[in-house]
Amino acid sequence: xxxxxxxxxxxxxxxxxxxxxxxxxxxxxxxxxxxxxxxxxxxxxxxxxxxxxxxxxxxxxxxxxxxxxxxxxxxxxxxxxxxxxxxxxxxxxxxxxxxxxxxx
Length: 104
Prior knowledge:
By secondary structure, this protein is mostly helical. The protein is 84% helix and 0% strand. It has one domain.
């Protein structure tokens, strides 16, 4: 089944591209230094950041568990913690057919 015949993989692709665009917009138009300086001043900023990284670590567990060779998961796990959700989207796009077979 090709990418365009698989609705789940197509949705993953679209959402990953959207997220990559949002991250790109943030870097292009935002002020990262200001954000990081204000991060400690507001509790909800800290909660949001903690939620984000806990989600990354949960996704990393999925990557590690479902990787046939555990060492191949490590670059993905490092990348997800620096780049974020688009990395998991790409990993999911590449691995969804294999995950379906493993979970059937």
